[in-house]
Write a structure and sequence with these properties.
Helices cover 40% and strands 12% of the residues. It has 2 domains: 138 residues, Response regulator (Rossmann fold), CATH 3.40.50; 84 residues, no CATH class. It is elongated, with a radius of gyration of 20 Å. The chain is an alpha/beta fold.
Length: 238
């Protein structure tokens, strides 16, 4: 038996949230529990700096979205990916919080990134619930849920093998003038870019209305790719 709380190993927690009020509030709540030690508080950009280390961190609480961003509005995905890349398997438990709990793109991307737990921000509005989520989340209830809009996924050409995060990363590296195919590109160059993209993304070709094409088509059209990227990177306000 431990004689005092100080003899317990406190969980070391990092908070990542783009809103200062969110960072301050979560820091105050989590620091109030003697079983927890907040060792880092960052916005998304700060958490991704090259010098940032996740060594010794037990739990990362990551806000998922920022609808003010001009590009990918789910910056929390990059944070989760960075944690997984830079820390040993299973060493950091990642708790994602978001006001966009029902966004299928966010669910898919966080599951691909291997986030552990996924909460609607309102579910953690009470201090005791936030503390409980960090200390001992009920696993079965708070894993990243599956996408609900199966018909929409099909219209976009998304299948189980589709790599959404890898596709977004590829498009961000290669995009020009609002799209991955520069205006004025010749047919051969445009086809090559779309083929290269789909080697990563693995989308099934779809017509402009989301139905399968009536003749064989190996690669998605540029409009289909743009629709997919809009879905994957933009917050939907339900």
């Amino acid at each position: 038996m431990f004689d005092s709380v100080s003899e317990l190993k406190r969980l070391r927690v990092v908070i990542v949230d783009n809103e200062a009020i969110g960072r301050l509030g979560m820091t105050a709540v989590l620091s109030s529990d003697p079983r927890l030690e907040v060792v880092g508080v960052y916005d998304h950009d700060e958490s991704l700096r090259p010098e940032r280390s996740w060594t010794g961190v037990d739990v990362a609480v990551v806000d998922a979205a920022d609808d003010q961003l001009p590009g990918d509005q789910f910056p929390g995905v990059a944070v989760v990916l960075a944690i997984r890349e830079q820390s040993p398997p299973g060493s950091v438990s990642i708790v994602v919080i978001t006001g966009h709990f029902f966004d299928d793109a966010l669910r898919r991307r966080m599951r691909e990134a291997k986030a552990d737990y996924f909460y609607h921000r309102s579910a953690l509005a009470e201090p005791e619930r936030l503390i409980a989520a960090v200390l001992s989340p009920p696993v079965a209830q708070n894993l990243v849920p599956p996408e609900a809009g199966i018909d929409e996924l099909d219209r976009l050409g998304i299948k189980p093998a589709t790599a959404v995060n890898a596709a977004v990363a590829w498009a961000r590296r290669h995009s020009q003038h609002g799209g991955i195919v520069p205006p004025g590109s010749g047919r051969r160059k445009a086809d090559g870019v779309r083929r290269d993209f789909n080697r990563v993304a693995q989308l099934e070709p779809r017509n402009h209305d989301g139905t399968p094409p009536n003749r064989h088509q190996e690669i998605p059209s540029h409009p289909q790719i743009q629709r997919f990227l809009e879905w994957a990177t933009k917050v939907k306000h339900h």
